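Predict the structure of Glycosyltransferase.
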Amino acid sequence: MNICYFVNQYPKVSHTFIRREILGLESLGAKVIRVAARNSPEELVDETDKQELTKTRCIALGNKKGLLKSGFKQFLSTPLNFIKAIGVAFQLAFNDQNRYFYNLIYLLEACELLRICNEQQVDHIHAHFGTNSASVVLLCKILGGPNYSFTVHGPEEFDKPIQISLGKKIQHASFVVAITSYCRSQLMRWCSFDHWKKITIVHCAVDDQLLAKEHKPITKANHFINIGRLSEQKGQMLLVQAIALLKQRNVDVHLSLIGDGELRGEIERFIKANGLENNIALLGWCSTAQIVEALDDCTALLLPSFAEGLPVSIMESLARKRPVLSTYIAGIPELIDEKSGWLIPAGDDMAIADEIEKIIQLTPEELNALGEYGYQRVSNEHDSVQEAEKLLNAIKALES
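Done. Here is the predicted structure for Glycosyltransferase.
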């Protein structure tokens, strides 16, 4: 079976879960053609991502003439389909704050995607995210391309479901993947009851390297880590505020932030203004090997998110037998409970500080028991091949 994966940007440091899914499908015998609208090679730090870059076709960035050529050829070969696709693109644009120019670009990307699918004899297209990527594969289908499906992660899709025409994309899809039960419930809100049966759950998976490598027991009670894009959504400003509160209480605590993003400057200024240079380290984006090393050297993962799907960093932490402190929002409670970590209200720096202070008082035996339970959960529910098989079976079922 030939499956085309279409993602707005791939590979990407924060999209390792897509890479694992693709490799899982290939281990099951599927041929996966990788197509991205754009990519940023200079951002990649993981060798596996760099290898994925060589396998991925980039159809938009720096390819203006190619897109126009594909659009012209598609109009000549199937003018009625092309006109119909223009109508759908305009419908998408009307919902999307009249962004007609962007949706016409998506139409040209769909023409180029269709050309590749025909060339590679693609049986099915799968996209990740219900935003731009799903728009392109929907338009490709209208042009006469293969059936499509797409995975929704949240929270971006649920912040603007009408603007991105989420219901229309579900309507035309063969099936839709939700990464959690919470995600599935949100999709049900934005499509008719007749389409609920299309929604299936396939979890994001953890890297086998994280699960299989020899585990180190927790020996330190005051070394914490956060992994993710430095953004409002992830709540890192609350973390640094909590560390400042703990310093005022004379609590010895250390935090490493892995990731980068728009909040880095603000976080750096807060660290300097509050004299937290010896308490907080900003490590930037790291490779999988570096993340494993950092997790193995920490007590627990701290992730005080405001909005989420189900963060891959939580799965990565549990894969290394490290418990997790997070917020009881979205799909997080589906994996984290009192047996594998701690859940607190979102948006409360005092609650974070109080919980960290309690964690520091726990014995290594108590911390390791939490990590061990979390490891068993993530091993059973987020195996890359097991989850890829669910997706592959859903695609194969379309042929029967």
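The radius of gyration is 22 Å.
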